[in-house]
Amino acid sequence: MSEWKDVRIGDYIDLISGFAFKSSKFLNEQVENSLPIIKIKNVASGDANLNDVVFHKYDNSLEKFLLEKNDILIAMTGNHPQALTQVVGGISKYKLDVPSLLNQRVGKIIAKGDTCLDFIYYLFKDKEVQNYLANQSSGSANQANISKNDILELNLRIPSPTLQRTIAGIFSSIDHKIDLLNRQNRTLESMAETLFRHYFIDEAQEEWEEKSLSQIASFLNGLACQKFPPKNGIKKLPVLKIKELSNGITEYSDWATTEIGSEYLIHNGDIIFAWSASLIVKIWDGEDCILNQHLFKVTSNQYPKWFYFMWCKFHLKEFRSIANSHATTMGHIKRGDLDTAMVLVPPNDKLKIMTEQMQPMIEQQILNNKQISILTKLRDTLLSKLMNNEIQVE
Q1: E strands of 130-279, at which residues?
Q2: Which helix (H) or strand (E) holds 57?
Q3: What's the start-to-end Cα distance of the chain, in Å?
Q4: What is the DSSP letter of 268?
Q5: How do the pLDDT tens digits run along the chain, 394 residues long?
Q6: Dihedral (CA of 236, 237, 243, 248) sign
Q7: How far apart are CA 360 and CA 356, in angstroms?
Q8: Which of 111, 160, 281, 384 is the most buried (most CB within 10 A)?
Q9: What are phi and psi of 216, to 5 degrees?
Q10: Burial 64-93 (b: 16+ CB within 10 A, else e)
């Protein structure tokens, strides 16, 4: 570690805080000379996205706030890690080819001199740095804030620029493989949806049997896991709640005993349906865990996984509409809604032909998810050990 030294990070980077755009000037759709606005909600851990963006007219006065591919962003407002959704201090890379504009409370990190920006990205992804920034934040757990000064005054240990580039190259290669697998999954998902619509919308036959979702699959509701705390440090697993379904298992996830019915154990590749709050249908891509209430584990002894998974996704828009219509603080659907959501069931010979085409797509997604999980754990473990001087890079 002779090439490493303790520094004030503000001597090696600078930070541009986003612009306070006036909401009255936001556009709901893109017009000529307008760009999307990247807000806190669009800065996820690892990637920025353009989900539900608004737009704003661009001119040269906003050049300072222009975002381009591979810019490094940091969330200056968000939740404390225990609350999870968008964590304050969360670091992200702007991997999109579409230029956009930086909104207030999102910062863009700029490298000074020969500092390697990609190394800074991984430095800030280290859990200890993330936790330190979160603990420096002010406000409540659900609305925490950090300042530009909080970030620039960090005392961190960094190596020479040459070693920075070597380290960044190692982690970038892992992330590149993860990105490839994620892109392949998105392609497979799109292909499966296209083929599903071809089967059941374009070429559906009137004589095909109609059944409800609840007839083709079992929807097991999870446990109130707080009633099943761990009895010891061995027979326990993390609890899968709605936030974990979106963000994965973290060090802040709850734990429960494994001395429960085996049907409540969740494994990579299981189909999970969040029936309240943010309605989601997902192939679980994380580690083994225990199913919490407000989530269904969807299975079937009669029909293939692709069949009930795609039909759940098909009805998701309808289910979200039902949930939004409920005058409650947390929208949800009821089991009766599963009884009235109808599906088409083709004859067995036709279903077999469909399965030969559809099932490999689902199985490849599951396999890719397992590889992504392994690579992500490898990257995070190596990063932590490197920053804690447990391993060295020559």
Answers
A1: 138-140, 143-145, 155-158, 209-212, 218-221, 236-240, 255-257, 265-266, 271-274
A2: strand 55-57
A3: 9
A4: T
A5: 558 999 999 999 999 999 999 999 999 999 999 999 999 888 865 688 898 899 999 999 999 999 999 999 999 887 655 444 457 888 999 999 999 999 999 999 999 999 999 999 999 999 889 888 888 877 665 678 899 999 999 999 999 999 999 999 999 999 999 999 999 999 999 999 999 999 999 999 999 999 999 999 999 999 999 999 998 888 999 999 998 998 888 888 999 999 999 999 999 999 999 998 889 999 999 999 999 999 999 999 999 999 999 999 999 999 999 988 875 556 889 999 999 999 999 999 999 999 999 999 999 999 999 999 999 999 999 999 998 888 888 7
A6: positive
A7: 7
A8: 281
A9: -95, -15
A10: ebebeeebbbbbbbbbbbebbebbbbbbbb
The structure tokens listed for 2 are 């002779």
Instruction: Please list the residues that pair with 35 across neighbouring strands.
Output: 56
Q: Which residues lie below 8 Å from residue 89, measured CB to CB, with a gap of 6+?
A: 74, 75, 76, 78, 124, 129, 130, 133, 134, 137, 146
- Please give the Cα distance from 295 to 286 (Å, whole number): 15
Helix (H) or strand (E) holding 320: helix 316-325
